[in-house]
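For the sake of transparency, this paper describes our internal protein records without simplification. The record that follows is passed on verbatim for readers who wish to inspect the format:
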Amino acid sequence: MKANKACIIPTMRYKNARTAIDWLCNAFGFEKHLIVEGENNTIAHAQLTFGNSMIMLSSENENEYGKLVKTPESLSGNNTQTPYIIVEKIDEHYEKAVAAGAKILMEIKDEEYGGRGYTCKDIEEYIWNFGSYDPWSESE
């Protein structure tokens, strides 16, 4: 996808980005778009896609930007932001995430405003929201 209008791409830091990348691809269905190796078996920069969306991540580090962004572990398991990702086959996605070990925080359910969704934590305690509700669609 080439961004021809405004686009938001969440960025994250992981203590073990290499393991996180594989887990995110297996559990949530992300695909590796670009992986830039860093020093000492770290990831300097990675881009993972999900449909026409993307997240960027890297290994936790103390560079200028890394000093600004913390992992949930460094915040006592708390998160300050959580992405919402639209998934067409939400029940299948939920089952795959559970099978991969995602910690379910809010069970899959139908929402009053339309769609169906769930909330979970990944292997490094980031909170993710997945749902079939598409706020851009007029059919919901």
